[in-house]
């Protein structure tokens, strides 16, 4: 194999895995990151103020990590110079030695991948969950020779820069609005999602949400799930999932809580049946699967008020799903974080129907509140997560629900939604202890 000069842009988990994979092939690898990073084990590491050295080299290829903005100056430069750009997803595919199951969608990807992984492992299949969930794919792919499947959570960032990536089974759970600032427009976001099936052939499978408006023009065998058509391969009737593909399975008793989980179950079951997993194993696993952390996760109860952590809610569609997961109109909702380009004004009517009050925190709280200026009652501002939790508790009544479903990316001091969710749970614990120890508060 010819030795190449390759740039890796972004040195988080994916960038580090890409570096190791490329070095295993003896390529000359140069790493660039906007943040200052110290790592003596990495040759040719250019970060912080030294990153501009990127322009001093000639590269045969550029590998982009998922968190790097599409309009980053290095990406624009590479495009102008016709330097091939690939994502770490594409790189991992080159190393893969087993079939790939790939799942994307605006919401529900991680739960679906985790559920497929659990079903497969209970069926004694050798699998690794990777991509946006679990290991970076280029790390998992290196040890994939003895695996049955790689189960990949694929983001729109990763799909933007694929070339030959070709999964055996792929699915788009849903397409809403997300990452508009990263992609530029909703059309470009949708276009990136649809790339997941472009390289599939007649020996592959694609699972589509019938209610999504795009036209499927791929070559893979098409399976569809639907909330409207009982004759489809899988029919979702409220919380009941009826699978018609091969043999019939009816699933209506599951510990998974949330309006979007029926779609996640539908795809997971169809994937499993394509792979020949026994119906009994599928049903047992699905019925016993519980919500993952930060996904409408029950935190606790204080003075008759239940608290839920839905920190994984990073777009408006996920807020809608969370609200529709509860009956009634007794929710105190906490919104906030970084605004992602889509106006919260589109859900004013739903907020008025489902919530007692809305509390808004975070660096873009003023923009969010401006978009909700026609809402009654008027949303309440809060300084931070603790302030939003206390404020929500103060306006809630016994029997109400406090739902932390931000609808935006995490903002300082949190690096990601995991840290944000952990902070919410810790603040609840501390406030609960304080409240219960303090008489007449």
Which secondary structure elements does this structure contain, and how are they paired or packed?
Blueprint: E1 5-9, H1 13-23, E2 28-33, E3 45-47, E4 61-64, H2 73-80, E5 85-87, H3 88-95, E6 100-104, H4 109-122, E7 127-131, H5 137-141, E8 149-153, H6 156-160, E9 169-172, H7 180-183, H8 186-194, E10 205-209, E11 221-226, E12 234-237, E13 240-243, E14 249-251, H9 261-274, H10 279-288, E15 297-302, E16 305-309, H11 316-323, E17 331-336, H12 348-354, E18 355-361, H13 365-371, E19 380-381, H14 385-395, E20 401-404, H15 417-437
Helix pairs in contact: 1-3, 4-9, 4-10, 9-10, 14-15
Kindly list the characteristics that best describe this protein.
441 residues, alpha/beta, Rossmann fold, UDP-N-acetylmuramoyl-L-alanine:D-glutamate ligase, Protein-Tyrosine Phosphatase, Chain A, 3 domains, nine-stranded mixed sheet, 20 strands
CATH superfamily heading of the largest domain: Mur-like, catalytic domain
Mean model confidence by pLDDT: 94
What is the overall number of helices?
15
What CATH architecture of the largest domain do you see?
Answer: 3-Layer(aba) Sandwich
Could you tell me the CATH topology label of the largest domain: UDP-N-acetylmuramoyl-L-alanine:D-glutamate ligase
Counted up, domains total 3
Largest sheet: 9 strands, mixed
């Amino acid at each position: 194999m010819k030795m190449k000069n390759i740039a890796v842009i972004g040195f988080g988990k994916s960038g580090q895995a890409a570096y190791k994979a490329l070095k295993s092939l003896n390529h000359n690898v140069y790493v660039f990151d906007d943040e200052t990073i110290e790592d003596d084990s990495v040759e040719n590491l250019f970060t912080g103020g030294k990153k501009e050295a990127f322009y001093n080299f000639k590269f045969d290829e550029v590998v982009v990590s998922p968190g790097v903005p599409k309009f980053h100056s290095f990406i624009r430069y590479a495009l102008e110079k016709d330097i091939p750009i690939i994502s770490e997803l594409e790189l991992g595919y080159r190393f893969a030695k087993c079939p790939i199951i790939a799942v994307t969608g605006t919401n529900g990807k991680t739960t679906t991948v985790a559920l497929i992984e659990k079903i497969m492992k209970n069926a004694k299949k050798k699998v690794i969950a990777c991509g946006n969930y679990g290991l970076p794919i280029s790390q998992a792919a290196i040890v994939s020779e003895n695996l049955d499947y790689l189960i990949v959570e694929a983001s729109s960032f990763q799909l933007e820069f694929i070339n030959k990536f070709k999964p055996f089974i792929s699915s788009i759970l849903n397409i809403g609005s997300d990452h508009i600032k990263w992609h530029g427009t909703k059309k470009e976001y949708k276009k990136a999602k649809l790339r997941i099936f472009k390289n599939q052939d007649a020996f592959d499978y694609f699972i589509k949400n019938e209610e999504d408006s795009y036209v499927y023009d791929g070559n893979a065998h098409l399976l569809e799930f639907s909330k409207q058509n009982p004759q489809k391969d899988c029919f979702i009737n409220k919380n009941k999932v009826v699978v018609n593909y091969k043999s019939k399975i009816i699933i209506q008793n599951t510990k998974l809580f949330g309006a979007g989980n029926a779609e996640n179950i539908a795809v997971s079951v169809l994937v499993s049946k394509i792979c020949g997993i026994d119906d009994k194993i599928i049903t047992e696993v699905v019925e016993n699967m519980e919500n993952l952390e930060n996904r409408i996760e029950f935190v606790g109860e204080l003075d008759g008020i239940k608290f839920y952590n839905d920190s994984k809610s990073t777009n408006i569609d996920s807020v809608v799903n969370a609200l529709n997961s509860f009956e009634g109109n007794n929710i105190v909702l906490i919104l906030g974080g970084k605004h992602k380009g889509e106006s919260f004004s589109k859900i004013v009517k739903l907020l008025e129907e489902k919530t007692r009050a809305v509390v808004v925190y975070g660096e873009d709280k003023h923009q969010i509140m401006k978009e909700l200026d026609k809402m009654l009652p008027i949303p309440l501002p809060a300084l931070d997560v603790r302030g939003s939790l206390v404020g929500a508790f103060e306006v809630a009544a016994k029997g109400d629900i406090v739902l932390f479903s931000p609808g935006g990316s995490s903002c300082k001091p949190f690096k990601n939604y995991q840290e944000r969710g952990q902070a919410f749970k810790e603040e609840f614990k501390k406030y609960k202890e304080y409240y219960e120890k303090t008489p007449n508060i």
